Amino acid sequence: MDADQLKTFLEVSRTRHFGRAAKNLFLSQSAISSRIKALEEQLGTALFIRNRNDIQLTPAGNRLLSHAENILAAWNRARHDLVIEDNKISSLAIAGTPSLWDISLQDWLHKLHHSHPDIVLHGEILQTDDILRRLLEGTLDLGFTFEPPQMPRIEIEQISTVPLVMVSSHDKLTSQQALSQGYVMVDWGISFAITHARHFPALQTPAIHLPLGRVAQEYLLRHGGSAYLAEPAIAAAIAAGVLFKVQDAPVIERPAYALFSSEVQPSTIVRTALNLFT
């Protein structure tokens, strides 16, 4: 088994198509088939059910998924660590949820690079459950999320508070008008949903639910409507007069958190990186 075989397996499992996997990996379809066949022979089991235009994972293939991701993550981290040791430089492996990358992490990343340009940085977009798993496995140094877990072996530090404000494509609306005219519900997590329901108990289920603030913002700009969006991300749209705050709507604040393993003493570079949020 080698890393290329695992990469090929993950790409086929993602695309569910040998041809698309070959295109994405810049390989021939026969090379993709050969790698998968060799991996199956080494493991002694089939990984895919091969039907025409419908490639599905077998139960064994499903079980291999997380192992393959972990092995490749550990391999990449080992390669980075060897290079870093040889060159006496620092590394940082981080992951954040999609919303936090859009709102906070990009600006933080620029600060980190400006103050420590010698850091080898490996960043990923992951959901909270995957961040936790990777922290516990030791393949991440830092994770960032809106929803802090209460679990052993994970340390939590609040890094910021993100104000979520109701905005609309129309000016001078009341909150009740905004809620009744093309309101878009954005998934800002469980805590937001609970607070939102407390502020607007009579709200009927909105017709549009979207997973990310930037997706909702683009929707409002194209189709009109209202939504709760992160104030830092919409400052330019408000200044340009294409979105407007709904003045009587309450601000809902969402704390953002950094996570790291309590089993590993935070390195100097981890602590330095976290201090850039203050």
Quick tags:
single chain, 278 residues, alpha/beta, Arc Repressor Mutant, subunit A, D-Maltodextrin-Binding Protein, domain 2, nine-stranded mixed beta sheet, two-stranded antiparallel sheet, 11 helices
What does this structure look like?
- The chain has helices at residues 3-15, 18-24, 29-43, 59-87, 98-115, 128-137, 175-180, 190-199, 213-223, 231-239, 268-275, and strands spanning 48-51, 54-57, 91-96, 120-125, 142-145, 154-168, 183-186, 208-210, 226-230, 244-245, 252-261.
- It has 278 residues and is of the alpha/beta class.
- It has three domains: 3-70, Orthogonal Bundle (Arc Repressor Mutant, subunit A), CATH 1.10.10; 73-160 and 260-270, D-Maltodextrin-Binding Protein, domain 2; 161-255, 3-Layer(aba) Sandwich (D-Maltodextrin-Binding Protein, domain 2), CATH 3.40.190.290.
- The strands form two sheets. Strands 3, 4, 5, 6, 7, 8, 9, 10 and 11 form a nine-stranded mixed beta sheet that branches.
- Strand 1 and strand 2 form a beta hairpin.
- Helix 1 (3-15) crosses helix 2 and helix 1 (3-15) crosses helix 4 (59-87).
- The longest helix is centred in the first third of the chain and has 29 residues, at 59-87.
- It is globular.
- The protein starts with a helix and ends with a helix.
How many helical stretches? 11
Structural class: alpha/beta
Radius of gyration: 23 Å
Whole-number count of domains: 3
* CATH homologous superfamily identity of the largest domain: Periplasmic binding protein-like II
The SSE string, one letter per element, is HHHEEHEHEHEEHEHEHEHEEH
Indicate the mean pLDDT.
87
- The stretches of 5 or more residues where confidence is low (pLDDT under 50) are none
- CATH architecture name of the largest domain: 3-Layer(aba) Sandwich
Span between N and C termini?
A: 45 Å
The helical percent reads: 40-55%
| CATH topology (level 3) name of the largest domain | D-Maltodextrin-Binding Protein, domain 2
The first-level CATH class name of the largest domain:
Alpha Beta
Q: Which word captures the global form?
A: globular
Strand share of the residues?
15-25%
What would you call the quaternary organization?
single chain
Q: What is the number of beta strands? A: 11
**Mind summarizing the main beta sheet?**
9 strands, mixed
